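Hi everyone,

Forwarding the result from last night's run.
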Amino acid sequence: MRFVHPLLRPVLGAVLAALAIFWISTTPPAHAQGGPSLIRDTEVERVVRTYLDPLLTAAGMSTESVRLHIVNDQSLNAFVAEGQNMFVHTGLIMTLDTPNELSGVLAHETGHLADGHLVRMSQGVRAASVPLILSMVLGVAAIAAGAGDAGSAILMGGQQIAQRTFLSFSRTQESAADQAGIRYLAATKQSGRGMLSVFKRFENQEILTDQRRDPFAQSHPASGDRMSALQQLIEASPYRDIKDSPESQYAYDMLRAKLRGYIQHPELTLRRYPLSDTSKPARYARAMAYFRQPNMAKALAEMEGLLKEEPENPYFLEMYGQINVEMGKVEAGIAPYSEAVKILPDAPLLRVALGAAMLGTENPRYTEQAVKELQASLDYERDNAFAWYELAQAYARLGQTARAELATAERYFALSVFPQAIQFAGRAQRQLPPGSTDWQRASDIIAVAMSQQADQRGR
């Protein structure tokens, strides 16, 4: 920058800022790009998917094609990213009061996915870039010719036009997502009032600054217009007054209590849910808070009380098993984990926990069953790196070195650590019968990993 004309320095800074705005607007938040802090939990994922999957079906999308990610973040946010990924922040779940409110947000995000807004976003960027680039060319030329003030004005004017062009495009997409979301809620016989309630929360946060804000300089429609449009759509729906069922509300209350107890500081949770509150959500939250402290004896007591009332609740059984394992009573954790798997045989995380507990006993009689549980979990989620790690340990204990090496290769492949994936796949391949299924899988890992490495080098 040493050779830039002095008048250009502040102007170029503004132009670069404008370009940064476009980049941020068309990509997930920074933490998502670098790997957001994700929470994996069977109960959280399955409950949220009970709200999401019907909406995806109503939108004509495959439920298997959209991956749900729970982000450990206190902000009120949800967003979609390339590859049909939907991210929901824990802060959003813990703050919203009803399943219908969360469904409203999920319906809106489904609208973005179903209408291909991520793909179209590049069109908006290109449209906004035209006045920006043109103004840069004319402005720099004017400054070079000695008309510094005029050149600066051209550059700044181009930036403002570009911003408004892109934000107008974004507002159109947000309005379209609102309308699509309301259609999906109606198609699943749900009220749109939850969506309206959530947006009113954001509207209330804007009250202090709305009078000074340019409604055309917002990426979303102006709050008043948005509320009015939503209200009309909701009133036209025959399902506008439908309420959440008691069963759905209970599941949501338990979900929020679990997240609060697990994520928030234990002292905060124990103040929110004092001992005088004997409801199930309160006891569940306290169990999580005690687990975090850690005070395993109190956590175990809370879970034992809950299990007396719901002995076949797979999530209670899972937590009871986990507490026992953390207390060093690993073998005592196997029975509740096994019961949870019997109730939810298609829950891969439960099978991984069971397999890991079996291996944690270091008792050889559990090893073969641990292999079966881990293999079954990977039938549902082949990219679970921890499951591959545990399976590699199990194969090593059984003396199946080649399979242990292949499982380790799978682990590194799932983590996109390609040099190690190639290394271990090669070691496995040299020990496996040529042409066998495992040998071919090792060959595939090597080929794909090498291709991915080449792509990374070319970027």
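Residues 8 and 334 are 68 Å apart (CA to CA).

Cheers,
N.
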